[in-house]
């Protein structure tokens, strides 16, 4: 009797656990990602662009940089200037690909994405001087994604 009840309790616990895990996977994916609004807030620059060239690995952080042709700035265009702009002004270097702290962090040459980035902080110089650093997951370019990002950007005033 006692063992029967115990088995039932165990079965119950297992069922709840498995359902919990499935629910989490289904609703949030296997990697936790902040809300778009938070991601937009923590990135000073948001742009769409195409990966033209994959550059060397950063041996310290095990990440890599890419030369990206910029199509459009959704946020922070005025912050991107001077030495950051490459080859006549429509390309930038973006670092931090492969960063395990970012869920969707991998690109291949020719990929076009929405990039959430910040200027490389000074402690990352000189390796990443004049580079932008990936700040959160890459996003596919769809009309819906573009509209959602623009909506977040327009929700606040940026100077
Ligand atoms: C993203 O930028 C914020 C500052 O806005 C910073 O605190 C955070 O560490 C950055 N995240 C990554 C993964 O670099």
From TrEMBL:
One of its GO terms (molecular function) is laminin binding. Residues 31-159 form the NtA domain. InterPro entries: NtA_dom, TIMP-like_OB-fold. It comes from the Eukaryota. GO terms for cellular component: plasma membrane. Disulfide bonds join 31-103. SUPFAM superfamilies: TIMP-like. This is NtA domain-containing protein. Keywords: Disulfide bond, Signal. It comes from Albula glossodonta. Residues 1-29 form the signal peptide. GO terms for biological process: receptor clustering. PROSITE patterns: NTA (PS51121).
